[in-house]
Amino acid sequence: MFSLRSFARSAPRSVARLSARSFRPHSSLLRTPAVFQPSWTQPVARLTSSFHSSAIRRDDSVNEELVAKLQSEITMEEEMRDDENYSTNIRDYLENSPFELEEKPGQEEIVLTRKFGDENIRVTFTTADLANMDQDADEMEDHSLYDEADSTVSDLIGQQQSGGANTKGTVNQGRTSDGNIKGAPEDSVAPADRPEYEDLEDEGRDQSFPARANIRIERPGKGALAIEAVAQDGDFVIDNFYYFPNAELAEPKTADKDWERRALYTGPPFGNLDEDLQILLEKYLEERGINTRMALFIPDYIDYKEQKEYLRWLNNVKSFVE
Predict the structure, then answer these.
(1) Which of 14, 24, 31, 265: CA 20 to 30 A from 78?
(2) Contacts by 65-71 with C-beta closer than 8 Å and gap 24+?
(3) What are the sequence ranges of the domains in the chain?
(4) Fold observed for domain 81-132+173-313
(5) pLDDT for 155-190, tens place per residue?
(6) What's the rounded Cα separation, in Å, for the pair 224 and 113?
(7) CB 242 within 8 A of CB 229
(8) What residues pair up with 103 in beta bridges, in sequence order?
(9) pTM here?
(10) Where are the alpha helices (DSSP H) in 97-226?
(11) Is the pLDDT of residue 312 over 80?
């Protein structure tokens, strides 16, 4: 759904802009350059002031056209919003998940919270990832010609290599036995190809895009864990797994706390850890509900939230202009 709506929003408007432009002769063509003016020419006194204080008239037709366009966008968004399956996916997760959803109208951040024993778990994500997706797609398109050339060369080289070389990179690193979370992007097995997740295939395939998730687990008197991950295709790809002796440093609110955080050793990159340790840490998160269901829900809800905020923005602008 989000790709269709993004395409509709970003439709080229260059034709309309060009048609609105009018040709104006350059002012330098209408007067004699100072170089060719004779030295005896006397300056002519101005008979009118260089400015006037009369009020600029408001063009109501511009406002009416803008309001009509805003209303057209609002109507389109409301029509695209009517998708029962999409709403069901979100509703099912919220009704059957131990996490509670926190969000505020007009803000990008979305938070999932829960208690697990004496632990306070907080998962934060944002609609900014969806807003930045189109920009990344444009940059990838600019390099498509170079990518095609590199792919052709790679294919030619691959045909000349042995079977061992051609199978390089197919090992799944840091993946749990049930495939919920992977710790490295080299994992080539998508969750839709795993038999244990066949029932989830249609849920996340159409809504798949990389969404950052910041996970924080706090225990009283024991500090906090902070995990940076990306949810995509029903998997969490973990980038970093930090430990902070002071829970306030996991999400610093002041410059002093941020400076104190920078001085700490919080652990190596997750991919540098022993593979067995990666698997156990992934199981630790899965036990707390940070699993495939959540990885599918996060991009789903980001799309829903972004559409809702965009619709609110359209109505606010229309109300202001009217």
Answers:
(1) 14
(2) 66/321, 67/318, 67/321, 67/322, 70/314, 70/317, 70/318, 70/321, 71/318
(3) 81-132+173-313
(4) Mitochondrial Matrix Protein; Chain A (3.10.280)
(5) 655 555 544 444 434 444 445 545 455 555 444 455
(6) 15
(7) no
(8) 110
(9) 0.63
(10) 128-142, 144-160, 163-166, 201-204
(11) yes
